[in-house]
Amino acid sequence: DDERLSGDVMQEPSESGGNIYHNLTTEYVQQQLEQSSLVGLYQGKDNHDDEGRLLSQFRENMNLTYMAHNPEAQGSEMHVKGAPIGEIREFIQEKMTDAFVGLEQGVAEGQITSYGVCSNGLSLPSSHPLHLSWEDMLIASNKAAGIVHGDANDIVSSLSMIQLPINLLETHGLKVANRIKDYLSSPEREEASLPSSIRVFAMRPLTCYPDRGTGTGHPFKLVDYLIPKSFDDNGDKIWTHDSEGLLPLYTAVLNETMAHFDATHLLEIKEEEERELTMEERETLDGCKLLQSMIHDLDVNLSSGQIRSFAAYEEDLYSKVVPLIHDTFEELDADSADVLQRFFQVHGNAVRQSIAKTTRQLLKEGGDGVDKYDIPDNVSLQEFALDYLWKQECNGEHAKGPLIDKVVVGCPKAEHVVEAVKIADKFD
């Protein structure tokens, strides 16, 4: 069922149904709060099992902040239709106010502790069509507090948090966070119902987008990798920032792969037996030459400095290289398949090594809109990037102290969690 609700704004259409919509109406927010299991836990509705005492203790220390995600998405349909940016911003502010009314009511009714905004648009410049104005966000919050609570002098908006992209290459979010904190700390601000401060959560600290996350461009990571030095699962590993040049394992497997597909035996048949190759033998010879050429190109690309995204490398691998192999050979024998599997395994690690070194060099040299960073050779990119954010201080006229309250790091693998904890333990 793809019935469109009041306030739905199309985000991703689908020919087969299942379209993705974005909604910020008061009614939709209220519905989501009513259906949320976390809200039920927070309110004590889920206190019927044997762990009731434990849940009760958990709630005593629980702060439940509901995040409105990417309010700027409300203006996407207007942007496609060519509406002026001023009209789009006005519409977005109106929709944010609607959502904040529902959230303020949720706080008043004890469903949540506070609310916040998680937005990619907050980190975009004002000229960008998907920009979200922090001023409009505060105005919407102030209006919502007035609508729900009236003109009482002691009312303070329940807006408590923003979450926005900030990293070494996408630094506009630092300016936005500074401006918000300084404005809220100013004794001259006009909106009495706004909070005196707000927590800033930096997201995507290690993931950068050339299009700032607004298009389909591949991300690249501010990370060094721990890569194996052998095929032994329990063997030694080395960090890419501690390695110099390609690992011996890669060079050995590269030579092994090139030798395997050199088709020497077919050339010897033609020369020594003095007969023409059969059609099947000619196809095999051509296929081997093609594979050698492809592997040579993959090897050359490692030192070109052009590979900056492992996601882009993987897409190229699956959309071009793998289909080429499939089209060239109807079926690979077990030995050949094993040789190729070993090559792509070590080549993937070599690509990670190349990307990490290229990224480090880019950050050290700066230029073309990139700040110049003094990164110690013995420090991983992820440690430097996280430490840089953690040390940011408010530099405005009124707000003082740390600029960023939390750094949100995505850890899709268990070893990523371990590494993140180790890095955090090094910080003061």
Report on the structure:
By secondary structure, the chain is of the alpha/beta class. It has 14 helices and eleven strands. It has helices at residues 26-35, 37-43, 52-60, 76-80, 85-108, 134-149, 172-185, 248-260, 264-272, 279-302, 310-328, 334-365, 381-390, 414-426, and strands at residues 9-12, 20-22, 65-69, 114-118, 159-165, 199-203, 207-208, 220-221, 226-228, 237-239, 406-407. It has a five-stranded parallel beta sheet with strand order 3-4-5-6-11. A two-stranded antiparallel sheet has the order 1-2. The longest helix has 32 residues, at 334-365. The chain is elongated, with a radius of gyration of 28 Å.
Task: Please outline what is shown here.
This protein has 14 helices and eleven strands. The protein is an alpha/beta fold.
